[in-house]
Amino acid sequence: MRKPGLVSALVLVAAAIAAADQPSSPPATGATGDAAMPTPDEIYDAGKALFDQYAPPEIKRQFEFPTPAQWDDFARRLQGVLAGGSLADLADYEPEARAALGALQALPGYEDYATWLEQRLDLIQAAGLVMRPPSGLKPPGPQAPPPARRAMPYYDLWLERLRHRPVPPGAAALVPALRAAFAAEGVPVDLVWMAEVESSFNPHARSPAGALGLFQLMPDTARALGLRTWLPDERADPAKSAHAAAQLLRRLQSRFGDWPLALAAYNAGEGRVARALAARSGRTFAAAEPALPAETRLYVPKVYATIAVRGGTPPGGD
What we know:
- The protein is mainly alpha-helical.
- It is built from 16 helices and no strands.
């Protein structure tokens, strides 16, 4: 068997969650009113059955369905490369991520997982440009400040990458309602463009870790913000997820006093941002950036550049 990689692992988690989303009998409910989740063994068996039945022959020729131990190994590596601080390690993940995206795009019904991975591949490719800039070009490092803003690492890189990128399908229909939700929560309305970075405006985009929706809310976070996460999963409701995301952003901005840091905390968690600021004796995203996860280091400037390219005004701060 070939070494299990991102392709087989994402096929597993996609199939498993897809199976869990469609129980064959009425689900039991717990004290919270949410339906009981299937056991890990049930999820694995359902995913294996779907893979055997629906995976195209070319995928089966290249990859065998991973064992639970192999899945655990993949999950650790994926979490490590996203949460680790090394842009070089993130960049090295590109071949595996590209292969995985091709696999998910080849499997009918897995568009929501492909959407998630496509956005993360964009971050991985940007990391590659930072670490291996085209010949003759200066590395787009933290020392290069964006026009008309105080220094934000990698903002200019994203501005160039996004300048001619088309608006995702569905954005035009969703943005007005999302802006209204953000305004109602007292959050700068142009921050709704973070939905492009999170999910390409696909309300059903889903990550292997369990994040779902336009704003990729994790289950525990969503429930803490008052959303149901099972039958129905209200994270897939554009208006409800927008209100929840805006409430979280407002709270994070209140804690850190800075919108870029609020976005960093949205992506990496409050504790990670607080520790990064302490480690760097800083008060801004630019100061904390070297101590943040690789994903977060690229995520914040991408959100800001996306807002600028889409004609909005990024909120103040650096």
